[in-house]
Amino acid sequence: MPPPQKKRWESMAKGLVLGALFTSFLLLLYSYAVPPLHPDLPSTTPEGTPSCSPAPDESETTAAATNGSWSANGSSPGGCRPRRDIVFMKTHKTASSTLLNILFRFGQKHGLKFAFPSGRNDFAYPAFFARRLVQGYRPGACFNIICNHMRFHYDEVRGLVAPGAAFITVLRDPARLFESSFHYFGSVVPSTWRRLRGRADKLAAFLREPHRYYDPRGLNAHYLRNLLFFDLGYDSGLDPRSPRVQEHILEVERRFHLVLLQEYFDESLVLLKELLCWQLEDVLYFRLNARRAPAAPRLSAELYRRATAWNVLDARLYRHFNASFWRRVDAFGRERMRREVAALRRANERMRRICIDGGRAVDAAAIRDAALQPWQPLGAKSILGYNLKQSIGRRHAQLCRRMLTPEIQYLMDLGVNLWVTRLWKAVRDFLQW
Ligand SMILES: *[C@@H]1O[C@H](CO)[C@@H](O)[C@H](O)[C@H]1NC(C)=O
Ligand SMILES: *[C@@H]1O[C@H](CO)[C@@H](O)[C@H](O)[C@H]1NC(C)=O
């Protein structure tokens, strides 16, 4: 039964106030901790400060790296050596949590050094990344993997990893991404949410008259337009006719060795496995942080078109990388891709039968183990999670648990101090939000 109208408004108001308070609290906190940054300014690290100097044996490996294609230089059967230095630019609402789990597992298995944030699970997002935000950072410090949410700042990131590190990111059809972001983050964009009050279908109302509801200077407004452009460190409010749009897209292409696509996630993982010279087991996954299928149908054709037009910078970005993705698949071999995707799906399916109680994702309320409870958006328990099977053989017990552990708990397992995140969770638990 739906809650009475009054109660709903009350809790929505509570959520708005809380969301706004918390965000301002964080902004305040970080405006003390981090000097404002701008992408056009030089990086915060002065010239001459040593950047990451990899250990000798590592630099030898990376010397073989040339323009993103790594040539044979090692030991493994494929004639390549598994890459261990990875920058994953984690975009929002793009299946990136699933990829994060893959990276956590690989790093943990090989004892790699992660560049983690301190206090929370992102690098002061939506502020730009700065290397001083990395837990335990000292000039010259060198890390294997960076993968938490950030607003990308290439020069700051580059100096933290070996020169041959692989840069990867993931994109998603911007209309779908917008829909997801709107549902997940809408309520923390008070300027928009206030104006949408009382609309039965907020998404449709917004997309029919976005300029009426959208305030580009409003708190958290970046979540509601060209979020990919924003996360990648660019101005998400650029005039689409500006030549800078295309320049930025080409810059992403130069900087990233692989751009994965959420819609073709398995194909993406096959390309990733190839790029990094990893094993099939390294890229096994269960979908994490997925939203319950909404009661309402997905975007209508009209709203899809509107959402694409509203996020036109992201749409251009996506179109560019969708095209290059398929050229890459052609180069890899279509038939070979089909075989490898089938192998990956079979292996995932096998793990599903081994690990997951009931064989599928369930609502938050049905998750028994708090360690497997996913983080929920404000005001809705819409993110699904899993139950681990009671009896799993010794051989798979650890892998199963790691594959099913949500981001926040995994970060804590890896020793990240998450006091801000945990404080926020305690407040929400207390208010039953
Ligand atoms: C760069 O990559 C291309 C193929 O992608 C290769 O033909 C070329 O030799 C590489 N450049 C260097 C310097 O190795
Ligand atoms: C991506 O490209 C493929 C192949 O050209 C095309 O079939 C598909 O519709 C594109 N996807 C999107 C979401 O535009």
The helix-and-strand class reads mainly alpha
CATH overall fold name of the domain at 83-279 and 292-350: Rossmann fold
CATH superfamily of the domain at 83-279 and 292-350: P-loop containing nucleotide triphosphate hydrolases
**In sequence order, what are the helices and strands, one letter per element?**
HHEEEHEHEHHHHHHEHHHHHHH
Explain what you see.
- The protein has 433 residues and is mainly alpha-helical.
- It has a domain at 83-279 and 292-350: Rossmann fold, CATH 3.40.50.300.
- The chain has helices spanning 5-33, 56-63, 96-109, 154-158, 174-185, 190-195, 202-208, 210-213, 227-231, 243-255, 265-276, 301-310, 312-332, 334-355, 394-404, 407-413, 419-430; strands spanning 65-66, 69-70, 86-89, 145-146, 166-171, 258-261.
- The strands form two sheets. Strands 4-3-5-6 form a four-stranded parallel beta sheet, with helices on both faces. The protein has a two-stranded antiparallel ribbon with strand order 1-2.
- α5 packs across α12 (301-310) and α10 (243-255) runs parallel beside α13.
- The radius of gyration is 22 Å and the shape is globular.
- Residues 28-43 and 58-75 have low confidence and may be disordered.
- One 2-acetamido-2-deoxy-beta-D-glucopyranose (NAG) is lined by residues 173, 263, 322, 326.
